[in-house]
TrEMBL record:
<dbReference type="InterPro" id="IPR037094">
    <property type="entry name" value="Glyco_hydro_38_cen_sf"/>
</dbReference>
<dbReference type="InterPro" id="IPR028995">
    <property type="entry name" value="Glyco_hydro_57/38_cen_sf"/>
</dbReference>
<feature type="domain" description="Glycoside hydrolase family 38 central">
    <location>
        <begin position="356"/>
        <end position="430"/>
    </location>
</feature>
<dbReference type="InterPro" id="IPR050843">
    <property type="entry name" value="Glycosyl_Hydrlase_38"/>
</dbReference>
<dbReference type="InterPro" id="IPR011013">
    <property type="entry name" value="Gal_mutarotase_sf_dom"/>
</dbReference>
<keyword id="KW-0862">Zinc</keyword>
<dbReference type="Pfam" id="PF07748">
    <property type="entry name" value="Glyco_hydro_38C"/>
</dbReference>
<keyword id="KW-0326">Glycosidase</keyword>
<dbReference type="InterPro" id="IPR011682">
    <property type="entry name" value="Glyco_hydro_38_C"/>
</dbReference>
<dbReference type="InterPro" id="IPR011330">
    <property type="entry name" value="Glyco_hydro/deAcase_b/a-brl"/>
</dbReference>
<comment type="similarity">
    <text>Belongs to the glycosyl hydrolase 38 family.</text>
</comment>
<dbReference type="InterPro" id="IPR013780">
    <property type="entry name" value="Glyco_hydro_b"/>
</dbReference>
<dbReference type="Pfam" id="PF09261">
    <property type="entry name" value="Alpha-mann_mid"/>
</dbReference>
<dbReference type="InterPro" id="IPR000602">
    <property type="entry name" value="Glyco_hydro_38_N"/>
</dbReference>
<feature type="signal peptide">
    <location>
        <begin position="1"/>
        <end position="23"/>
    </location>
</feature>
<protein>
    <recommendedName>
        <fullName>Alpha-mannosidase</fullName>
        <ecNumber>3.2.1.-</ecNumber>
    </recommendedName>
</protein>
<keyword id="KW-0325">Glycoprotein</keyword>
Amino acid sequence: MELHSLFLFAILAGIFLPAPVDSAYVAYNTSSGIVPGKINVHLVPHSHDDVGWLKTVDQYYAGANNSIRGACVQNVLDSVISALLDDSNRRFIYVEMAFFERWWRQQSDVLKAKVKRLVDSGQLEFINGGMCMHDEATPHYIDLIDQTTLGHRFILDEFGKKPRVGWQIDPFGHSAVQGYLLGAELGFDSLFFARIDYQDRAKRISTKTLEVIWKASRSLGSSSQIFTGIFPVHYEPPDGFNFEINDVSDPIQDDPLLFDYNVRQRVNDFVAAALAQANVTRTNHIMWTMGTDFRYQYAVSWFRQMDKFIHYVNLDGRVNALYSTPSIYTDAIFAAKEKWPLKTGDFFPYADRENAYWTGYFTSRPGFKGYVRSLSGYYLAARQLEFFKGRYSTGPNTDALADALALAQHHDAVSGTQRQHVAADYALRLSIGHKEAEKVVASSLAALTSSRLKSTQMDSNPEFQQCPLLNISYCPPSEANFTNGKSLVIIAYNSLGWKREDVIRIPVSSENLVVRDSAGKEIESQLLPISNISLLTTEYLVKAYLGISASGSARYWLAFSVSVPPLGFSTYTVSSSKSTGSESRSFVSTVYTSEEGSVENLEVGQGDLKLLYSANEGRLTHYANKRNLVTELPELSYSYYTGYNGTDRVFQASGAYVFRPNGTFPIEPKGQVPLAVIRGPLLDEVHQQLNAWLYQVTRVYKDKEHAEVEFTIGPIPVDDGYGKEIVTKISTALSSNKTFYTDSNGRDFIKRIRDYRADWDLDVHQPVAGNYYPINLGIYLADETRELSVLVDRAVGGSSLVDGQIELMLHRRLINDDTRGVGEALNETVCVLDDCKGLMVRGKFYFRIDPLGEGAKWRRTLGQEIYSPPLLAFSEEEEGYNWKSSRTTTFSAMDQSYSLPNNIAVITLQELQSGKVLLRLAHLYEAGEDKDYSVVSGVELKKLFSGKKIKKVTEMTLSGNQERKKMEKSRLEWKVEDEDEEKVVRGGGVDPVKLVVELAPMEIRTFIIDFDYLSSHGDSDIHHRL
Ligand SMILES: [Zn+2]
């Protein structure tokens, strides 16, 4: 307070600069550093470069498609580098490594050497340092780690540097996982961003709490907290200080021979803006973010003005201006020895004004979100297989998929807030990366199945095909006809660290089939008919996506149980029972339709879980689990919100970002909904066509205690002039008292209370949209005796708007732009030639009701299984060839007797280019979440890497770019207001002899492992031998 009045006095006293009389060269003094006792204005030059939004990443880089927007990142980097070389006091931060990498590889060695010097001197600093500035609502945490690791590795390899600061300035709300995992666990000392709820911001400005210590993990507490700075307005400079060539801010005109000499005026403007900002922060340091989207295409136009401001403002002397970076700012703030307010939880949802909750993008582009998620799990498995075989120095690898997935995490990519042609570009990159990774998977499986063969037999390596369109029942290898004596060989690979039992399904064309397991034993299998409607859909979609005509030969789904060892595979063969002369064959499911009309109630479920349907009403009425005696009268329904049809911010429309409903309508089928019930020994299915564009299949597996719901939604009709957002609701009698829990990027569950925010008194304007939260893993609610959990297969938005009820938004199609810049309506279509229809989306969710306190085991275990489904590869066994006798039919990379504890997952197992191996282990439970599994558990590395000799294990920070020990020594220890005692549990050091890694709840530990390949031995070790 005193400090500020002193400066006010200075303004009034007017220490004014005298105007010179001659025009001459001015050597601007830009060398100032921090001046104690003054208000220090840290000018942070930056350019916010989206790796795809209105244009594709490459169009932005090259400056193509400029009729959409004049943006060329190549210009930014070229001109910034030369501006930095011109004056060694100038500084710049760079954030998006996808762009920087593109630029770097085309530079000369001479320029590269200069740029390295700029980086060494701190003039050019990499912050954040992932490939992109990722979204925080809709990515899975493994993707966030992977994309950050990729960027950090580039920075380390090329520059030997480790980014110190998180810079998530644009994402639309901020996740707990960002704060503690992609912040503190990376070794970052601070994190900065712009977008928080407008009500939250107003309160923080008035209470000087824009800068906080964010303790985002309940389990890891103060061991994983981070200093977090929220900008008072946005990530632009204060008004009047934008200096791109077309910007309207007044430049400093300091030539006295020209008209409009304005040095005094501009210095006063600068000082006034600085004092205004100093009023809302706690120290005498303030940061000005000097730049915004795609700025510095002509960098001198910014630096020229900042040179002058620094020179004249410091001559004036009321405040001190300096070239700075967020790291310099962070160190200055830290040196102030202030105590900071504590922030827990996260920053969702985000509204930028009353009726503008950015909660629509939690669901926008559900097809793309599903694609990203399924490839994320595939990439995890493919890297494991790449490691088991040995990484190729040339030839196919998983790098293209890694790059494509990294770009897809951008805050205008998986978020669904890009233009249509940009969404197509991301999808194309993913499909190219996927194709290459498929080759890696196929060759690895070929090698692993051939490991018993002598090298003379190796030329007969089998071809492995995979079926990425299995979800629309399209899989040519499994649809082949097996009457000619050939058999289908299916390898099921399990990327989980524990053994799994799962029912898989493949489309087949005949009914007399027999399935055998790895040992050649016949196993139970079930045929489920594929309906004609479903076949027509498959034909249409195959034509749309592959441009070919599907043969349409599939008539059934063939389902059977697979049992697969950890980090390993099992082999199954399918052959015609006629040609093998087998007695048994697949069970053909019985089909009953309620139109047959003889019963009132239909029960499904061959195991403990029973679901009862009213045949007359066509709906679910009873849920009963015989094992734990949980019963409930649930309702599963669908409805839609019509989107508000505004065209400006007052009449805010629902769009790609914003969810603004304008009424809700139940989807009530006219008259009776005929149910089709398909029953068999492994699973039962209930099929319901709810209307012309909504089809639902509910599955109950004999050995599972949850219901799996597969929905097919679309084309959503919009010809009535209204966009529609489709939701499903699962209603129960649980009295959940406004409370529910949603995950943070698939990891920690965060408590939500309807119409409530912990940090301020909420003014409720949007009772639906304002209670929506991002869901990546699941959502649950509880009362005093039971809990209802729902898990998802991709990012969706969801809420509990009524006690006992969970709501998920599954699809949305809108006809207006929501005026947040994308400039397009979110209206996805699928076309065959010129015939376009609204996008059809198929996905799954899973629900289960447990006694209170018993839901976590299911959520965590099934959550891993959903993320990492068995990877299926198909080959053919020629007649007379005996696969089983000549090939390896089961494999596990781990010791045969070993399995990871149920609370630990391998989230990265990857051979790096250096030949070293990157291993990440994650504890799956939070402290206190489960009575059995919320405990410290150990992983025996010797058994995990069976047959390999471990030479050295080095614990690293999350992105693997520095030793954890070093990071812990150098990280800043911030002080918190009202700090209370807390006990944080973390795993201890790894004994180099025992090699056991301990993990405490929610801990993720990252290691670089060196193997001694020369002394490796054992059957499972084919590494580097092939
Ligand atoms: Zn952006």
